[in-house]
Specification:
The complex is a heterodimer.
Chain A lengths: L3 H6 L3 H30 L5 H18 L4 H7 L6 H15 L6 H12 L3 H4 L2 E2 L5 E3 L2 E8 L2 E8 L3 H20 L3 H18 L2 H15 L5 E2 L12 E5 L4 E2 H6 L4 H22 L1 E3 L7 E4 L3 E4 L5 E3 L2 H9 L9 H10 L9 H18 L7 E3 L3 H15 L2 H5 L7 H20 L2 E3 L8
Parallel strand pairs in A: 5-10
Antiparallel strand pairs in A: 1-3, 2-3, 3-4, 4-6, 7-9, 8-11, 9-10, 12-13
Helix pairs in contact in A: 2-3, 2-5, 3-4, 4-5, 4-18, 5-8, 8-9, 12-18, 15-16
Chain B lengths: L1 H7 L2 H19 L6 H7 L4 H7 L3 H22 L8 H18 L1 H8 L14 H20 L13 H18 L6 H18 L3 H18 L1
Helix pairs in contact in B: 2-5, 2-7, 5-6, 5-8, 6-8, 6-10, 8-9, 9-10
Classes of the chains: A alpha+beta, B mainly alpha.
Pfam family, one (chain B): TetR_C_23
InterPro entries (chain B): Homeodomain-like_sf, Tet_transcr_reg_TetR-rel_C_sf, TetR_C_23
Protein name (chain B): Tetracyclin repressor-like C-terminal domain-containing protein
Chain lengths: 439, 224
C-alpha cells in the first residue's frame, strides 16, 4: 500500500482539477436556486429570468476558467448549444480519471478471465502498478521477447455504468442548458453511443488498425502496432511508444520548424481522415499524442472515432466554401439541413441565428480560406472567445429552447476545436488544405 | 466386492462424496434432501455411517462452505505473485479467487440462499465454520498490516478489524448473489472499492491526527 500514493500521482492532476471546476459550477447553480427562492419569499414577483441569468453567468465563469483543451474548446462552442453535452461528456470521462487506480490483483483477475493466464505468464515482465491512466482504464508496461508493450486494462463495470451515469447527469443538464428533455436526448443519445463504443476495446483495436493502415503513408506520423491476439473487450495490447507527451515536448523548446512539422502532420492526419476516410479520431486531446525521436507524431488511443455520414459531410463542409461562392438560398438550405434553424423559429429568430452562424463560420473557417495559417496568433483565438462570450450571454440565444445543430456536429466540432487548440499550443504555421470539391 | 472396496476408501473421500451428492441433489431438485435416511440410502450407505461424517445437513452445508474456502486458499497461494503482495492485495486476491470458486457453485448457492434474509442479521448456522477459518485468515492479514504499518494499531478498535472484514465478506457474498452484470463485473468493482475503503479507514488518516492533536492539547493544558 506504500505504492498507493505514487499510483495516484499518475492520474493527470489537471483533469481532476478540471472536474472540480466543473463541479464547482454545479454547486453554484444549486446556490443560485436557493438564492432565487429566498428572494422570491421576499418578492414574489421575481421572475425566473434573473435566475437563469445567474446560472448562465456562473456556468460561463466556471467554463472560462478551465484552461487547456477540451473544455476551453467546449466553451467556444457555447454559441451553439451542442457544446454543453460535450462538456458533460468530458466531465463524465474525468470522473473516470479520478477513480483510484486498479489494484494489481484485479488486473490479474481481468487477465485470467480474458486469457485464462496471469500477466506474468503472458509477458516476460509486467509492471504491477499502472504507468498511466487512460480515459476508462489504466496502462501497464510489459515486455516480451525484447519488445515493449503498452497494455491498457479497462476498469470493471464501466460499460455497465455508462447509461446509468448519463441518466444521473441528465436532469442536471436540462436545468443547466435550459433545454427540454426531447432536445437534450437528441444529443445525449449521440454521447451515450460514443461512450459505449469507447468501452468496447475490440472495436477500438479494429478501428486503430484500420485508421493506422489508411494513414501510414502520411509523413511524420507513427502508429503503434496492435496485437488482437493479446487483446479482448477489456484489454488492449499495443506497442509501447517511447517519447514525450506534447506538453513535455513543448517544454524542451523545440524550434519553429519542428513545431511546424508536428503541426502539419496533425493537420494532414485530420484532413485525410475527414475528407478521404470519412471517419475521424474524435478526441484530439494532448494526452493522445506522443512526440517520438525524429520529430514524428505518435498517435495513440482510438477510443473515440466518429464516422461521418455522407449527407452531413456535404452540408457541413460546404460551409467552408468562400462566402462569395455560396448564395443565400444554398446557405439557408444548409442551415435547415444541419438543424441550425427550423420551421419552429420565428422570422426574427431565423434572421438572428442566421446572422450568428454566418459570423461564426466566417471566423472559424478562416484558416481554410488562406494557403497558410499561423495558429500561433493568439488574437485569432481571442476573437473566437469573444464571439462565443458575446453570443452565449445574448438573451435571444439563451431563451431559444431549441437544440441547434445536427447531432453529428457534436463530435466533429469537438474534433476541429481540439485540433485548432493543439495547433495553437504548438504555435504552428500550417499549410492548410481543402478537399478538391471545395476549391 | 463393492462393499470391500468401499471400506478401503479413506475417510476424506467419503466426505467429498457426501458433499458432492448433496450439492448434486440441491442442483437437481432445488432443495435439500427430505431426510438423512433417504439421502444416505441414495449414497448406498446406512444412516449410521452418514453420522460418522456429518451430524446433519447443516454440517454438510458447512462442509461445502469450508471446501470452497480451502480451495480458494490453495488457488491463491498457487499464484506466483501472491507472496509479494501487500496485505491489501492479499485480501483483494482472496476475494477475487473466492468469487471465482463461488461461481462454480452459483446455482447451488442461489438455490439455498437467494431467498435468505440479510446474512448480517441472521447468519446461517452452517456458515460458522467458514467464519472461524476466515477470521483466522483475516487476523494474519491484520497482523501483517500492523507490522508493515499499513494498518494503524488503535486500542480496542483494531481488535475488531477481522470482524469488520467478516461483515465485508458477507456483503460481497450477497452483492454477488444479486449481481446480474456480465462476468459479475460489478462484484469485481464492489470488491475493489470496499477493500480500498477498508484500508483507507484502518490506515493512518485524519482521525489519528485528530486524536493525536487532541491528546497534545489535553496534555499541554495539564502542563500549564
Amino acid at each position: 500500500m506504500s505504492q498507493s500514493p505514487e499510483e495516484q500521482n499518475h492520474i493527470p492532476t489537471s483533469k481532476a482539477q478540471r472536474a472540480t471546476k466543473f463541479l464547482g459550477a454545479g454547486a453554484k447553480v444549486g446556490g443560485n436556486y436557493i438564492k432565487h427562492y429566498a428572494k422570491k419569499i421576499v418578492n414574489p414577483s421575481l421572475s425566473k429570468e434573473e435566475l437563469h441569468e445567474d446560472n448562465a453567468q456562473d456556468i460561463y465563469t466556471s467554463l472560462s476558467q478551465l484552461k487547456g483543451s477540451a473544455l476551453k474548446v467546449a466553451q467556444m462552442m457555447s454559441m451553439d448549444k451542442t457544446m454543453l453535452p460535450g462538456a458533460y461528456q468530458d466531465k463524465f470521462t474525468m470522473a473516470q480519471y479520478s477513480a483510484p487506480p486498479l489494484s494489481y490483483p484485479l488486473v490479474v483477475r481481468t487477465f485470467q478471465k480474458a486469457f485464462g493466464r496471469t500477466p506474468e505468464a503472458m509477458f516476460d515482465t509486467f509492471s504491477t502498478s499502472a504507468v498511466n491512466a487512460a480515459s476508462i482504464g489504466q496502462v501497464h508496461k510489459a515486455t516480451k521477447d525484447g519488445k515493449t508493450f503498452a497494455v491498457k486494462v479497462q476498469y470493471p463495470g464501466v460499460a455497465e455504468s455508462v447509461s446509468s451515469d448519463l441518466k444521473m447527469v441528465r436532469p442536471f443538464a436540462y436545468r443547466l442548458l435550459n433545454m427540454n428533455e426531447k432536445e437534450m436526448d437528441h444529443y445525449m443519445d449521440e454521447v451515450e453511443e460514443k461512450l459505449l463504443e469507447e468501452t468496447d476495446y475490440e472495436l477500438e483495436v479494429q478501428r486503430s488498425q484500420e485508421i493506422a493502415a489508411a494513414c501510414r503513408h502520411l509523413p511524420h506520423l507513427h502508429f503503434p502496432d496492435y496485437y488482437p491476439e493479446m487483446s479482448t473487450s477489456r484489454i488492449i495490447t499495443m506497442d509501447w511508444l517511447e517519447g514525450a507527451h506534447l506538453k513535455e515536448w513543448l517544454q524542451t523548446n523545440p524550434t519553429q520548424e519542428e513545431r511546424n512539422q508536428i503541426g502539419q502532420a496533425l493537420w494532414d492526419f485530420y484532413h485525410h481522415q475527414v475528407h478521404n476516410l470519412k471517419q475521424v479520431h474524435a478526441d484530439p486531446h494532448p494526452g493522445n499524442f506522443i512526440i517520438l525521436p525524429g520529430v514524428t507524431l505518435g498517435i495513440i488511443d482510438f477510443g473515440c472515432v466518429k464516422v461521418i455520414p455522407e449527407d452531413f459531410y456535404r452540408g457541413y463542409f460546404s460551409l467552408i466554401k468562400k462566402e462569395s461562392l455560396l448564395n443565400e438560398a444554398e446557405l439557408n438550405q444548409i442551415f435547415y439541413d444541419l438543424d441550425f434553424i427550423s420551421d419552429r423559429d420565428s422570422p426574427a429568430e431565423q434572421a438572428y441565428f442566421k446572422g450568428v452562424f454566418k459570423e461564426m463560420i466566417a471566423l472559424l473557417g478562416r484558416p481554410f480560406h488562406a494557403e497558410t495559417f499561423d495558429f500561433a496568433q493568439n488574437d485569432y483565438f481571442q476573437q473566437i472567445y469573444t464571439l462565443g462570450d458575446r453570443i452565449s450571454k445574448d438573451k435571444m440565444f439563451r431563451q431559444s429552447r431549441q437544440a441547434r445543430g445536427s447531432k453529428h456536429g457534436l463530435f466533429i466540432n469537438r474534433t476541429y476545436f481540439g485540433l485548432y487548440s493543439l495547433l495553437n499550443q504548438l504555435g504552428a504555421h500550417i499549410t492548410t488544405t481543402k478537399p478538391d470539391w471545395l476549391k | 466386492m463393492e462393499n470391500i472396496e468401499n471400506t478401503h476408501i479413506p475417510l476424506k473421500d467419503t466426505r467429498t462424496r457426501i458433499l458432492e451428492a448433496f450439492v448434486h441433489h440441491v442442483l437437481e431438485t432445488g432443495q435439500e434432501p427430505v431426510s438423512v435416511y433417504k439421502f444416505a440410502q441414495s449414497l448406498g450407505m446406512t444412516e449410521q455411517e452418514f453420522y460418522t461424517f456429518y451430524t446433519s445437513f447443516q454440517g454438510v452445508k458447512g462442509g461445502v462452505w469450508d471446501s470452497i474456502f480451502t480451495q480458494t486458499l490453495a488457488d491463491m497461494h498457487a499464484q506466483a505473485a501472491y507472496a509479494h503482495y501487500s496485505p491489501k492485495e492479499k485480501l483483494l486476491s482472496f476475494y477475487f479467487t473466492w468469487i471465482e470458486e463461488l461461481k462454480k457453485n452459483r446455482s447451488y448457492l442461489l438455490a439455498l440462499y437467494e431467498k435468505q434474509p440479510d446474512f448480517k442479521k441472521v447468519t446461517p448456522q452452517e456458515v460458522q465454520s467458514f467464519k472461524r477459518h476466515f477470521l483466522a485468515f483475516a487476523k494474519t492479514l491484520v497482523q501483517e498490516g500492523k507490522e508493515t504499518e499499513q494498518i494503524v494499531d488503535r486500542k480496542y478498535v483494531s481488535d475488531k478489524y477481522p470482524e469488520a472484514l467478516w461483515l465485508e465478506t458477507l456483503f460481497i457474498f450477497q452483492f454477488w448473489l444479486k449481481d446480474t452484470s456480465s462476468g459479475f463485473e460489478r462484484t469485481d468493482a464492489a470488491i475493489e472499492k470496499s477493500v480500498s475503503l477498508f484500508f483507507d479507514v484502518v490506515g493512518r488518516n485524519a482521525v489519528d491526527s485528530f486524536f493525536d492533536f487532541a491528546k497534545f492539547l489535553y496534555q499541554s493544558k495539564k502542563a500549564i
